[in-house]
Amino acid sequence: MSKFKYKFQMYKNLQASLPAIYGEAKKAADEIGIPTEIRGKFGLTGAISGCPAPLRKDIVEASEKAGQEVVPLAKYVDEIRELVKDVYGEEYDAAPTSTCEAALWVTFDCLFTPPNLGRGDNYRARYIAPYEKHLHHQGAYGRPFPAKYKDIFADRGTTAGELGFYGKRQNNLDAVIVPLEGAKYDVHGIKYHPVPLLSQVDTEASLKRIEEVAAQQAESLTGFTSLGYDTVGYGYSQRDEEGTPFLQKGIAKIAKKYNVPYVIDNAWGIPFAGTDIAKTGADIFVYAMDKATGAATSGLIIGKEDVMVPIRRAMGMHGDRFGTTASYGKAAYVTFDPGKEALATQVQALKVLRDKPEIVTKPVDDLERIVREEFNNLHPTLKKGIVITKSYNSTAVEVNYEGTWKDGMGLPIFSIEDMYAGSNIFQTGMAQMGVIPTVAYDGNIFISPGLGTTDEDGQLNEELARYAIRALVRLLEIVGRHVGIIE
């Protein structure tokens, strides 16, 4: 039972307790025995853009080889196209970009925004985005609708205003935000803000609600978007026998009914061995190839050939004006050029995922075992509210702790605003222990291998991974004591 009457009081106390929590965290790192020489050099995930994992040996070699060769860049793009078609079929195509955010930007501008050319006044367009995690990516390219969501992104990121996330908004485009049925959007955090809690999402009821909103917006509707993840904490626990989330399949059907594209943001996901675009029925998947896939920093767009044509044109990859099958030239989004070495690493990473996916999936199996073993030692009061899920799509193990709030106050839930403000203790506290943190907001912790926990072939070093997980478990208990939910 928490010692606080209201949750805002708990977060106020946490803020005042930061020095004590940090002191206990540093002491715990010594008790766990984390070697001094590795502190600050390993962590809970290698899939964050701000601190990416070291590249595998084969990826480095592909980059170095490309750097010494004379090869037209269109050749690398065509290799990527061939690999995509090998796995997904003739009707799919691809376009590499510099980042996943670049992939979203060019895709939304090509498929969702109204045309700028032509006589007469321009019309407004709207795309539908479920109210889910990471909404400042897939849901931030239009002005939020309804108006109550106009400040939903608040101080998100490092720069506010038109030079921050708000500056991504595209010409005459609105983002219609639709809450998911069964989800909770309670306010939490030291930087108090609504958080999407999605472990209890009702897929059937959510799809019904999305379709109702689509009917209301039909006159100006130009597309749908969502995440491409497959875990409980992201709201995708209801899946078919092949593991494809029903929510994604359902949105794809609604999009087809309205003859508009469905774009899935699978930034922290992998092609081929992850969520299958063909099985979802979506038109476009976008990836951060430097996250779970392990290529150099870059993005990748995979989609049905017809919707890929304007995207490839915008990237200058769809052929020269005098008629060629491919090109690598100047176009509207030449600023999103990924470059030669990144292209070569994408080719290599995709070959591995096509031919030897176990190189990427085995470390996930090993990590899941360690997470379950270490979390088995967690205080019983906390353990009963934890749900652990393995995801090959994200090459990650998800620890969702929404359930600790089932019978009253539970483990603090930090908002994404806390992450950007530096007040998410489950991230800043890990840093005090010498462990580089992972995404740990909205009641959800995503853990993956790679950041100093794998060898040059990408395989897990169990001892180092266990240090990181053990530190996380201890931090959860330290914070749990400070909020009074455990003794």
Automatic annotation (TrEMBL):
SUPFAM superfamilies: PLP-dependent transferases. Residues 243-313 form the Aminotransferase class V domain. This is Aminotransferase class V domain-containing protein. It comes from Heliorestis acidaminivorans.
